[in-house]
Amino acid sequence: MYKTIIRPILFQFDPEKVHYFTFGLIRFLSKIPGVKSIFRRLYVVEDKKLERTVFGLNFKNPVGLAAGFDKDAKLFNELSNFGFGFIEVGTITPKPQVGNPKKRLFRLKSDSAIVNRMGFNNGGLNEAVQRLKRNKGVLIGGNIGKNKITPNDAAVNDYELCFNGLFDYVDYFVVNVSSPNTPGLRELQDKEPLTKLLKQLQVLNFQKEKSKPILLKIAPDLTDEQLLDIIEIVKETKIDGLIATNTTISREGLLSENKKEIGGLSGKPLNNRSTEVIRFLHEKSNGAFPIIGVGGIHSAEDAIEKLNAGATLVQLYTGFVYEGPALIKEINKALLSSVN
């Protein structure tokens, strides 16, 4: 029904407007008595065999929602009714910011892809915290970044503010230095500034009564040498794992007319490269740390391929937009079939 009726209608309109319309619709429907139960019956798969314990956290299933979809932590409770095992909110910055000028979100229909240059648009740390206080048992990741106006030499301060502010309200953290849509942000992926940033967050982390997992989200555009540096950085800073990968700046092999739009590309064209990065990191590190695999998952086979490459968990974003919530159930059912 989603792919044959709902998606063709939604895809007639501006993607950013559709995103907010869909949010409003899900929120409205979820307030109607019985609708949440209907969603859960349709999409949630519960089975002990799907459960995963990763970096000390218990996941009901290994399929999560990637950051960028619920940027402001507005809909995580409702979205959990579609069967996700965990939801990552953000990217959250200390201060509110409007992001880049519109139009900044584009569908590449011929490629089953999306290009975005949103620019960390969000309501800021304080607003997100107030919403996260209403969490009803959803396992939450907090994806954190710096404000656009913050220079790179002061970026650590922004990440510290978000870390301390969100600490009591998220289950794990994701350090985002790999978005291509904030000028200069990817420079923080260089070995020296990245090591400094992660070490400082770990200092704060170990000062807490009980530390929380810190993950690093990396770009798919890193070279093998840079990926080897990332493995060393994980080892040196003792962070808990990686998310591979963020969106790409590559436009290789695209068919859509609007393929030259500036921004980060997600969706099917990213699938192979994301899996290559996961496999490389897993093999070169000898499986030393967990990897959350994200990028181009549009089918159960895509998800299983990433898990076989070395991912411990997977996340959806563009596949959720193109395939609908049935994709989550499809992946979890396939995973159950593979262990029975």
Question: How are the secondary structure elements laid out?
Answer:
Layout: H1 2-10, H2 15-30, H3 35-43, E1 52-54, E2 57-59, E3 63-65, H4 76-79, E4 86-92, E5 105-108, E6 113-116, H5 125-132, E7 140-144, H6 155-166, E8 172-176, H7 191-207, E9 214-218, H8 224-237, E10 241-244, E11 264-267, H9 271-284, E12 291-294, H10 300-309, E13 313-316, H11 318-323, H12 326-339
Parallel strand pairs: 3-4, 3-13, 4-7, 7-8, 8-9, 9-10, 10-12, 12-13
Antiparallel strand pairs: 1-2, 5-6, 6-11
Helix pairs in contact: 5-6, 6-7, 7-8, 8-9, 9-10, 10-12
Pathway: Pyrimidine metabolism; UMP biosynthesis via de novo pathway; orotate from (S)-dihydroorotate (quinone route): step 1/1
Active site: 179 (nucleophile)
Protein name: Dihydroorotate dehydrogenase (quinone)
Primary descriptors:
TIM Barrel, 8-stranded parallel β-barrel, 340 residues, 39% helix, alpha/beta
Structure report:
The chain is of the alpha/beta class and 340 residues long. It has one domain (2-339): Alpha-Beta Barrel (TIM Barrel). 39% of the residues lie in helices and 16% in strands. The chain has 12 helices and 13 strands. The protein has helices spanning 2-10, 15-30, 35-43, 76-79, 125-132, 155-166, 191-207, 224-237, 271-284, 300-309, 318-323, 326-339; strands at residues 52-54, 57-59, 63-65, 86-92, 105-108, 113-116, 140-144, 172-176, 214-218, 241-244, 264-267, 291-294, 313-316. The chain has an 8-stranded parallel beta barrel, surrounded by 5 helices. Helix 9 runs parallel beside helix 10 and helix 10 (300-309) crosses helix 12. The chain is globular. The chain starts with a helix and ends with a helix. The mean pLDDT is 94. Substrate binds at residues 71, 116-120, 176, 181, 246-247. Monomer. It is a peripheral membrane protein. GO terms for molecular function: dihydroorotate dehydrogenase (quinone) activity. It holds the Pfam family DHO_dh.
